[in-house]
Amino acid sequence: MRIDIITVLPELLKSPFEASILKRAIEANLVEVHFHNLRDYTSDNYKSIDDTQFGGGAGMVMMIEPIDKCISQLQSERKYDDVIYMTPDGETLNQGIANHISLKENIIILCGHYKGVDQRVRDHFITREISIGDYVLSGGELGAAVLCDAIIRLIPGVLGNETSALTDSFQDNLLAPPIYTRPREYKGWKVPELLFSGNLPKIEKWREEQAYERTKALRPDLLDEK
Ligand code: ADE
């Protein structure tokens, strides 16, 4: 998979890709991530990427030309499955969307700033709009980092244990069951005895029940979906 991220603040985005699982995925060539600074696609001396709104109103708008130049340059080099715009009014990211995008070959992610982009960018270049939640960030970069993390960890080979992404919370619309490790008892707090029984079918059943009970208590809305 190849991800091209278009941003005015590449430095805000880079560190998540320089540590841990994302770094290893890139080093193992399981994913390529490229950053494109929108200011490199400007045509005036001031390297402007934004301007005031037509019709009046507070806040600057990202101009179409540098975005067009950058996206068109990329699209002349290879075919993209999706051109994603990070915006609070996009569809809210969930595990299903992450699963779907993780199967793509090449994607572009455009990070918005200020009031957002000229509507014509959305009308003519963007194929999908994604929000990471109902709150407003100062730019799309942190949202893009969240989206990339959620999709890259699903690429086969990225996680050590191939099954572990499948047993994550949300993969079956259930939260994950409780997990424990050593010590067996800490300050008098014990690990459920069943987990030492060696009875794998029974442990599996217990985990399923716990997952269901947890979901019912904490996220009943998930049980209504699908
Ligand atoms: N840009 C600003 N707010 C955002 C959000 N909630 N999700 C994605 N991109 C954003």
Residue share in helices? 25-40%
Low-pLDDT segments, ≥5 res: none
The percent range for strand residues is 15-25%
**Number of helices, where a helix is a run of at least 4 consecutive DSSP H or I residues:** 8
Examine the coordinates and then state which fold CATH places here, giving the name of the CATH topology of the largest domain: Alpha/beta knot
List bound small molecules: adenine
Largest sheet: 5 strands, parallel
- The figure for the number of domains is 2
Gyration radius, in Å: 22 Å
Structural class: alpha/beta
Shape: elongated
Query: How would you spell out the order of helices and strands?
Result: EHHEEEHEHEHEHEEHH
Q: Kindly, what is the distance between the CA atoms of the first and last residues, rounded to a whole number of angstroms?
A: 29 Å
CATH superfamily of the largest domain: SPOUT methyltransferase, trefoil knot domain
Describe the structure.
The chain is an alpha/beta fold. The protein has 2 domains: 2-152, SPOUT methyltransferase, trefoil knot domain (Alpha/beta knot); 169-224, tRNA(m1g37)methyltransferase, domain 2 (Trp Operon Repressor, Chain A, Orthogonal Bundle). Helices cover 34% and strands 19% of the residues. It contains 8 helices and 9 strands. The protein has helices at 10-14, 20-27, 64-77, 95-102, 119-124, 141-152, 200-218, 220-224, and strands spanning 2-7, 32-37, 50-52, 60-62, 82-92, 106-111, 128-131, 185-186, 189-190. A 5-stranded parallel sheet has the order 2-1-6-5-7. Strands 3-4 form a two-stranded antiparallel sheet. Strands 8-9 form a two-stranded antiparallel sheet. Strand 3 (50-52) and strand 4 (60-62) form a beta hairpin. Helix 4 (95-102) packs across helix 6. The longest helix is centred in the last third of the chain and has 19 residues, at 200-218. It is elongated and about 70 Å long. The structure holds adenine. Residues 86-88, 112, 131-133, 135-137, 140, 143 line the site of adenine.
